[in-house]
Design brief:
The chain is α/β, with parallel strands linked by helices. The protein is about 45% helix and about 10% strand. It has a 6-stranded mixed sheet, sandwiched between helices. α1 packs parallel to α6 (about 170-190) and α3 (about 75-85) runs antiparallel to α6. It is globular and about 50 Å long. The termini are far apart. Bound molecules: uracil.
Length: about 270
């Protein structure tokens, strides 16, 4: 395959990834620093902390993968608060001019399961909360059918501000916003992610493969297993696709049961 980047330089996507990983590690370190000595890890660990500074991509990935373990705790509200504070009244991309509210994300800071959609729509922009419109109601039903509640999981989008006319997020918007999603994931440390819809999953996995080919098997995003499935808005338009979507969720439920994660197991 041909490559246009100068010799010795990382390709753009790898640089973006590295920047996001370092940013996630920074969040973790800031949380640790704010906790102070009383926040010492609950159990000692043999693992070595890898410095975040300029390291090859693989080392940075390893550092982030290690961070939740050496921190000894996962999913405190403090981690998310730091990310929200850093996001501030964001003006990093053009979507800031048209939004009513930043839609940061909602749910448990220690959620085991995270749902990631595309972008806020009109209802979400009005209310500042993801998936509150018609598609959101279907998502809530899907969550409950899995033996979970909306409060138990965490729900976010790739971008946090509504695009005009609900168009797909543009690359500069994703580039500005995705690092914050990555930091949210790092702060929450979910065990499993469900990617909702083609645009969200293609953006996360850096692929052009369609959702029909991607769904039905686990992938990995930021070291976390990710199950792609159809977007609830698509399911509202194509109810015959609810069955395959349910098959995807059943795989997630089976994985949850295998990992011993809490859910109402009468749902299967
Ligand atoms: N669609 C999405 O992808 N996200 C929302 O929050 C609402 C609708």
């Amino acid at each position: 395959m041909g490559s246009t980047q100068p010799r010795g330089e990382l390709p753009t996507h790898a640089r973006e990834e590295l920047r996001a990983l370092v940013s996630a590690l920074r969040t973790r370190l800031e949380v640790e620093a704010r906790r102070g000595p009383s926040g010492a890890p609950a159990r000692p660990t043999q693992r070595k902390v890898v410095a975040a500074a300029p390291t090859p991509l693989a080392e940075a990935e390893a550092a982030v993968a290690e961070a939740p373990s050496w921190a000894g705790r996962k999913g405190t509200p403090e981690g998310l608060r730091v990310v929200r504070e850093d996001l501030g009244e964001c003006t990093r991309c053009k979507l800031c001019t048209g939004r009513k509210n930043i839609v940061f994300g909602v749910g448990a800071p220690d959620a085991e399961i995270m749902f990631i959609g595309e972008a806020p729509g009109r209802d979400e922009d009005e209310q500042g909360e993801p998936f509150v419109g018609r598609a959101g109601h279907l998502l809530t039903k899907m969550i409950e059918a899995m033996g979970l509640s909306r409060e138990q999981v965490y729900i976010a989008n790739i971008i946090k501000c509504r695009p005009p006319e609900n168009r797909a997020p543009e690359p500069d918007e994703v580039a500005a916003c995705e690092p914050f999603l990555r930091r949210q994931i790092d702060a929450i440390s979910p065990r499993l992610i469900i990617g909702l819809g083609g645009v969200a999953v293609q953006t996360l996995l850096r692929t052009r493969t369609g959702i029909t080919a991607l769904r039905g098997r686990f992938h990995v995003y930021q070291g976390v297993k990710l199950m792609p499935t159809f977007h609830p808005a698509f399911l509202l338009r194509s109810p015959n696709m609810k069955k395959p979507a349910w098959e995807d969720l059943k795989q997630v439920m089976a994985e949850m049961d295998r990992l011993g994660l809490a859910r109402d197991r009468s749902k299967r």
